[in-house]
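Example record for the data management plan.
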Amino acid sequence: MDVLNRLKNGDEQAFKTIFDTYWQSVYAVLLKYTSSEEDAEELTQDIFYSLWQRREDLCLQSELSHYLHGSAKLKAFQHLRNSYRQQQRFSTLPMLQDSNVTGQPLTYKELELEFKQAIDGLPEPGREIFLLTHSNLYSQKEIAEKTGRSIQMVKYYIGTARHQLKKKLKNHL
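Corresponding structural encoding:
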């Protein structure tokens, strides 16, 4: 059975193989278009996260590499378009005065509690890896050694955790 069929059947080892094989080239495409290492890394994680989420419905008309690199270009253009639109939106807004802001901001304690609850809601092993990197300040290499995963998989889990946390805490960012 080829790696793509194994992926469709939920084989994590097949996903790991695809991830390890294509991560660097997908990242390179995104870095070329975004010129930002941070954005390229986050968008690369998004592409692989999406691949895993949609694995059962995946129907490729071409090689997997063409699909992933095409996805990277599309993701980069969407990111650039959204960034441009956001800049345009903010440039047309009048400066807000404190008295015009509605609602009370969260206190530090309330925000910290929401953050902890969001972290607790992360699925394993992403939660464990996120905590190792942010609470215990382990390097990605140290986490890979400690958990028996590749560095690329550690990066994937960190990116996925960040993505999920941003989604859960978007009203406070």
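Summary line stored alongside the record: Helices lie at 3-8, 12-34, 37-53, 64-92, 108-120, 126-134, 140-147, 151-168.
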